[in-house]
Amino acid sequence: MAFALLDQIRSIFDGDPGVRKVADDPVLSAELLMLFRMILADGTVSESEMVAFRRICKDAFGIPETSIDAVIEYLNEFGYETNGSQAIALFRDLDVERRKQLAQHMAEIAKADSQLAETEVRLLRRTLDLLDISPVDVVKPEG
Predict the structure, then answer these.
(1) pLDDT digits (tens, 9 = 90+) for 6-32
(2) pLDDT for the residue numbered 66
(3) Nearby residues of 58 by Cβ (< 8 Å), 6 or more positions away
C-alpha cells in the first residue's frame, strides 16, 4: 500500500512511467505512431483495434495498462512532429526481426476489426516495401 502511494507521488513529479519509456525511446515512439496510423487508416477507430493496440503496448513493450491512456495522449501531442516516412526511417537500420515485429503488429491492428480496408492494405504494403520485408514474413508461424 505504501509503495503504491509512493509510486503515485513519484509519477506526479517524474511523469508517467509508460510515457517516460516511450519518450526516451525514439524507435518505440515511432512504432507506436505507425500502429496508431494503422488504426486511423480506414477512417474509423474501432474498439477492437484499440484493444489490439493496448494489448501490443502491454505485452510487446511492457507499458503498464495504467499508462496507456497517457501514452496515447503523449503520441497525440508529440506525434504530429513525426511523419510516417520519418518513423519508418528509424527502422531501416534495425535487425530484420525487429522490422518484422513492426509489420506483424500493424497487420494485427489492421485485422482486429475483421474488415481489411484498402487503405489499410496500402499502408501495410508501403510499410513492408520501405522496411524491405516480405508479406510472407508478416504471417506469424503457428506454434
Answers:
(1) 555 555 446 888 998 998 888 898 899
(2) 94
(3) 64, 65, 68
What are the CB-based long-range contacts (under 8 Å, 24+) for 121-128?
A: 122/41, 123/37, 123/38, 123/41, 124/38, 127/34, 127/88, 127/102, 127/103, 128/103
Q: Pull the grid cell for residue 16.
A: 508517467
Which of 72, 57, 68 minimizes the C-alpha distance to 17? 68
Radius of gyration of the CA atoms of the chain, in A: 16
Place of cell 488504426: 39
CA pseudo-torsion sign 16, 91, 81, 113: negative
pLDDT tens digits, residue range 77-88? 876 666 667 777
Global pTM value: 0.81
Burial class (CB in 10 A: 0-12, 13-18, 19+), 105: buried
Region 86-105 average pLDDT: 86
